[in-house]
Automatic annotation (TrEMBL):
Keywords: Metal-binding, Zinc
InterPro entries, alphabetized: Adenine_glyco, DNA-3mA_glycosylase, DNA_glycosylase
Lineage, uppermost ranks: Bacteria, Pseudomonadati, Pseudomonadota, Alphaproteobacteria, Hyphomicrobiales
SUPFAM superfamilies: DNA-glycosylase
Organism: Maritalea myrionectae
Positions with a binding annotation for Zn(2+): 10, 23, 183, 187
Domain of life the protein comes from: Bacteria
Protein name: DNA-3-methyladenine glycosylase I
Molecular function GO terms recorded: DNA-3-methyladenine glycosylase activity; metal ion binding
Amino acid sequence: MNSQDKLNRCFWCGEDQQYIHYHDSEWGYPVDDDRRLFEKVCLEGFQSGLSWLTILRKRENFRAAFDNFEIEKVAKYDERDMDRLLADAGIVRHKGKIAATINNAQRAIELRDEFGTLAAYFWQFEPQLSERPAQKDEATLRKLAQTEASQKLAKDMKRRGWKFFGPTTAYAFMQAMGLVNDHMDTCFAHQKAEEARKNFTPPQPK
């Protein structure tokens, strides 16, 4: 429960106002916008070894540095862009993660050519209700680092040449983009996310 507004929230968002806003307005709500999906894949990769709050606080810097994660623009980055990004103190300056982002933009174009949209590809991996835990309390969700669905997604993306996207990262992506609703049962946003999912039509491949 947040001490200021007395709303019950998921255990992980704490008291940081930026994190609370992200939890309340973004996390767990279904997304079918390709730019947002690509951005999240990239930022989840940058998060590896760090906290999401660290990345969230730098998100606007990342957007400025990576042309708002416009896939076609990032896919064309060259060595000059690599040097520019490595010199940018506003982002995480990790050569492997930056190179992975450029690579993944190129792979994203390939996926769109095949499926029509990134969203149509990702939403194929939405797990069935029977695959989800019946009870979503803190103890259950703390142990739920990856699932069979996230393992399948990560394995398929690895086969397609994506980088920095293992099964744990894949599951965090699925949680954030609303492929699953992992707001705790006691969280005020759980029902809001559930309603959003009911009113959402998963995109289909072309």
